[in-house]
What does this fold into?
Amino acid sequence: MSLGNSYIIALKALRRNKMQTALTMLGMTIGVATVLTMIALGSGAQKAIQDQVKAAGMNMLVVTAGNYQAQREKPPDDAIEMGAVRNPEVNGHPHLQLALFHPEDDPFAIHDHPTARQRLGDSEAGLGAAATLTIEDANAIRKINGVQYACEGIHENVHVADGDTRWFTRVHGDDSSLPNIRRAWSFVHGDFFSARQQRKNEQVVVLGNIVAAKLFGDVNPVGKTVTLWKQPFKIVGVVTSSSWMVTPESGDDQFDAVYIPVTTMQKLLNLSKLNDITVTTSSTGDVTRVSKTIVTLLRSRHKIGGNTPDDFTVASQASKALTKGGLRPDVASAVTGNAAGLEKVTLDQLGKTLDKSSKTMTALLASIATVSLIVGGIGIMNIMLLSVTERTREIGIRRAVGARATDVLLQFILESVTLSVVGGLLGILIGVVAAIAISHAVQWSTSISPLAVALSFGISAAVGIFFGYYPAREASRVAPLTSLRFE
Amino acid sequence: MNPVISVRNLTKTYHVGEHQVNALRSISLDVQAGEFVSVIGPSGSGKSTLMHILGCLDQPTSGQYFLDGRDVSHLSDDEISLVRNKQIGFVFQGFNLLTRTSALENVELPLLYGTGNITAAERRKRAMAALASVGLESRYDHHTNQLSGGQQQRVAIARALLNNPSILLADEPTGNLDSKTSIEVMEIFQSLQKERGITIVLITHEMDVAEYGSRIISFKDGNIISDVTNESRRHAKGELDVLPSVAEGVA
It folds into this structure.
């Protein structure tokens, strides 16, 4: 007898008892749907961590012209104990003291805007000219293996004017790849300027939504013209934050700002250098290696040899990622709980810890879900065992007309496998829908991998065979004679 | 000509607790092809045990059973299942049809088992032909609970005939039927014997049912007490003609 016939028999038997079939399947469906949803949530969290880490700059490096980075990040060594420090005397003039601090230059404060020291930094620190980076440097960095994007940056203050309405803000001369680096951006109107517009030095501008609101209110400004440095610029887009964690605010340098092609800015302001180059790496773990490569590359390009200090600074933004990222609260607390002393750990360590904690969470969710899968499987076993008693007469009839014990075994196994596989497929469908619904409803990211789907399907088939075998064997052992007498 | 059924010194002993029950005590008998044998006896006489052994649903304690010349008394489960599928057709008192299943699917059932691949179309064709031979082709899609007792028994007969078995075993086939329907079923049996030469073994405890057979074997306490050719055979067809014609009720 062929397997095909066994399958026909099993399907017909299932069809005879539709209600029971449907309910048993439901148990399996719920089990698989739960597993899939939980895995989707877990790996979604994992992916969210990676994305946030990237968005927040875990894979970001900023190459800044000049070498005064140390002063920006921490107070000068000689200013640690402010009260105790005495300003050094000017040589030969004991009554004169060098002013170490500018009044607005509190070394402990971290300013959004450049401090006086930073503005004066180059000449005061005497470490090379501010403008050492060029577009050619950026192009060379783009060719480094592992670099995802590199974006040139020139930053100035500017008056943006629409007729008589003026707004004082920041202007950033950037590469057209900037929106790929700033992941938490979305465009209210229009889009970012294109690579073509950048190549042709076109006078196009993208407004931060704060600027757009100040100048145009609620009107869509795309296509209109504003003036910068008395030059007309065509508006091509308005950008805002896509992360609910970051709200655009006045003076935030990101959405209270305008963006123009770096080439246009260089041409109009007659510049040949850059303030900085923002680099992202394809993988988070690669940041350390890429930053070393960039240092070597730029030192050779700038012909810096021996012990001469760099005329640029490469900085990564590791720890900011966790505290400012848009992580789900539970993920964030899991991460901060697992990674003590965030400031001290290296990027690689941090990445590994993050991965580990999210994997732990996925495993936890999956194991909870597995319980419901087992319950579904036991449901199938229960029904199939009941069937054996309930269907003794049916078994007897089948044996009387010539079914072998193996035919009966096969029929019952195929019945339970069909129940679990069809139930499982429905569960996969429901799980996918549930995962999408969850990510829409509560903004939790979910991720359904083909592996998770294949795993759920495999598990449901295995459950069918595993929990179906025992009842099927019982059924095949029913003696034809006794089962016929059974009324 | 070799007998279809040949039984030699068949014994069957059950153990019920401490008790030993001798259901069959060294039975020997031959049934020739085309015979309609009625086996009669009171409850506990051993006639049902004989029927189960003849139907290969049970195996004898000792002795031999040749079906179509082949010893089938000690075959493996798989072999005996095939024998049941190909050579034996059963008709039971309780019909033993699958519930919630159409008449056609019930009749098709033997074709789903056994050797050989039969297409769905072929299965259907043969099952319809079998249903037609018992006059039920118009009700092929009725579920068993939509059929009357007599109709259900006819479906069971159609199923039993599907594989052209060597013998048709009927165990109290009229036990659950009223007298008119019983006569109808007997008419089918008699015409099967007459027109198709099918060998029939009918088990009953009612003498008036046994009298439809061409030969009557009486059982008592596990022994054959008489084995005679039925001289005063009843003919169901004639009896049906004289019965007042009543529209057949459908449950």
Q: What stands out?
A: The mean pLDDT of chain B is 90.
